[in-house]
Model the fold of this input.
Amino acid sequence: MTSKSTLLTFGVILVLKIVQECHSAKLPKYSGFQVLTVSPVWQELATHLTLLESKGEVDIMSLNLVSGNGAMQLLVGPNNLPSVIATLESFKAQFTIGKEDIGEILSKQATEKFLKAESDEEGSFHDDYHSYEEMLERLESLANSHSDKSQIISLTDHGLTHEKREIKGIRITHDITDPASSDKPLIWLDGGIHAREWISPATMMYFVDVLLGEEEPDRADQIISILEKYQIYILPVINPDGYVYSCNGDVTKTQDPQCDRMWRKTVKLSGCNENQAMWYGGCLFVVCYGVDPNRNWDISFEERNGVSENPCSDAYPGEKPWDQPCVDTVRKFLTSVQDVLKVYVTYHSYTQLLLLPYGRTKDLPQHHEHHQKVGADWVAAVKQVHGVNYTAIRISEAFNKVSGSSLDWVYDVLKVVDSYGVELRPAGGDNHGFLLPADQIRATGEENFAGLVTLIDNVYQKQD
Done:
């Protein structure tokens, strides 16, 4: 009897585990998903919506308190839409619902890509989004073509991602073969820490082309001056596992159940929905994957501000700092170049912001005046290109306090004064959000490269 009972128990556990894997929180559908824009937003409402997010009832796509009144964009599935609308109405909140649901937008973008592929028109690399593999292939090609000033870099010596991918990028500087070039002040630019923010890696790839003279040739003298003084590291995707799982830059794959276009996090198993575990170690309902890699840095981590304790939430910071291999790998590399690291900029989307320290506290940082000067000049330079308005603002002003961000860690721990984040297009007034049309890649790159040049012109000089 004992043997049969044990076998029966084992069989039940096995079936439960199979069911859980099939009902994983990793495979949502987006047909009928709507974007709700809520404005104004006040503290009580924001707190309640954050609670709904932690329960998986909404996805907070953006929060922007710049205007003073505040605005939020929420991604809501058809099953939760009635209750979320009822909640907003109970708060007497003003909100609008996007004209198209996310599924319709993805379908249109996929159709456009199919039609473009069938045409004989040969476009630029920057006319579309690309897979991680395609980006690395292009970097290899460019490094070979411009071997006098560029070389491929890999962070492999410091680790691999959870799915054993290399985090790779390109190093660009004048006289790159001269060992002394590694002593130059280092500018670090990264993208793709959040998987679904495709415009971020695309912008990094555009930057590479400009620095190597493939784009904007009128900047040649300006680029020579920059590369004689600095070495620039560009890593287009520092969360490649997440990027690949977000359909790997290919909108035509968004109906594939093995990818999720709106995926934000890493992909490592993170726990059980609302921490509801079974006695045998499995999950009661849903298995959760991934951690927000921009909440996983060891800066005010234990304060848990702006995060969720639900492992299925997009804002889950992880059990402990550095428990995500991609984050730990980048941290180790940045630490290894701390002595020469002078500029750190991490590119995200969306809401068109230049983010300044701090996020972890509302206190002003020591270099606040410098950051304000850089911010004002950066915003002006960006606007001059296409007339697009960005805003320079401290993270804690824009989003309230958040723990565990890379920007704060680099500023506080590595003592890099010029540590910033950029939220790229769109501003958030429409329902495209992370689904920014590919025809805006080039313009986004152009305006943000102008901002980068201005930032470099304003690099902090230590006072003796």
Observations:
- The chain has a mean pLDDT of 91.
- The longest strand covers residues 341-349.
- Residues 2-22 form the longest helix (21 residues).
- Residues 16 and 173 are 55 Å apart (CA to CA).
